[in-house]
Amino acid sequence: MFTGLVEEKGTVHHVNHVGNAADIAIAAPMVSTDAALGDSIAVNGCCLTLVAIDGSTMTFQAGKETLNRTNLGELKTGCPVNLERSLKVGQRMGGHYVSGHVDALGTVDQKTEDGEWAKFWFKVPNELTRQLASKGSVTVDGISLTLVDVEFDRFSVALIPHTLDVTTLGDRAVGDSVNIETDLLAKYVQQQMDRK
User: For residue 53, what are the contacts with CB-CB under 8 A and spacing of at least 6?
Assistant: First the structure.
């Protein structure tokens, strides 16, 4: 379980494709300091298991399903990634409950800059917007964000300068793919409504 508060913007050291899977090595001086083998760490919002540590470089394995359903399959050497360690019991909760299970890939549909601020629109499969509500929560590339507007197949968020600076969203351009996870509570509410 995560909060969607990015702890560090790491850098992909290398990606080694092995058949349908990949070993993804990420340089992360801060997150790696107390990391241990077997830890769950969110990489762009996707929960991965830490399988090797070499200094400040952490290695994760991603299978075919993960590579196909998330933007981790697009990673190359030098790409920035959002990192968050899993939530500890009793830890202060700042964002919202994030499972690290990506629902779908979305794309940056529109980006409007207003000084140091920015408004982003993300295009998503329309079945996901049933789980989104204005002023509710959504996770984009592992970042807990508050929804502004929700339309049939897209939604918007307003980003403060801090978020643009310390996460990958500041580098995103129109057409870029992003990992989307809707709010956990919204999933359960929709499931109950669909059963009626």
Answer: 32, 35, 36, 37, 59
Interatomic CA distance for residues 24 and 66, integer angstroms: 12
CA distances (Å), 91 to each of 2, 94, 95, 125, 177, in order?
11, 9, 12, 33, 31
Using the Cα atoms of residue 171, residue 120, residue 139 and residue 163 in order, give the sign of their dihedral.
positive
Q: Indicate the pTM of the whole model.
A: 0.93
The domain 8-85 is placed in CATH, from the list 2.40.30.20, 3.40.50.300, 2.40.40.20, 1.10.3520.10, at: 2.40.30.20
- Please give the Cα distance from 61 to 12 (Å, whole number): 13
| Predicted local confidence at residue 54, as pLDDT | 97
Give rounded-to-5 percent helix, strand, coil for the chain.
20, 45, 35
* Inter-CA distances, 122 with 1, 60, 109, 131, Å: 24, 27, 5, 14
Contact 154, 94 (CB under 8 A): no
**CATH 2.40.30.20 region(s) of the chain?**
8-85, 104-195
CATH number belonging to domain 104-195: 2.40.30.20
**CA pair distance 60, 46, nearest whole angstrom:** 11
Q: What is the pLDDT at residue 141?
A: 98
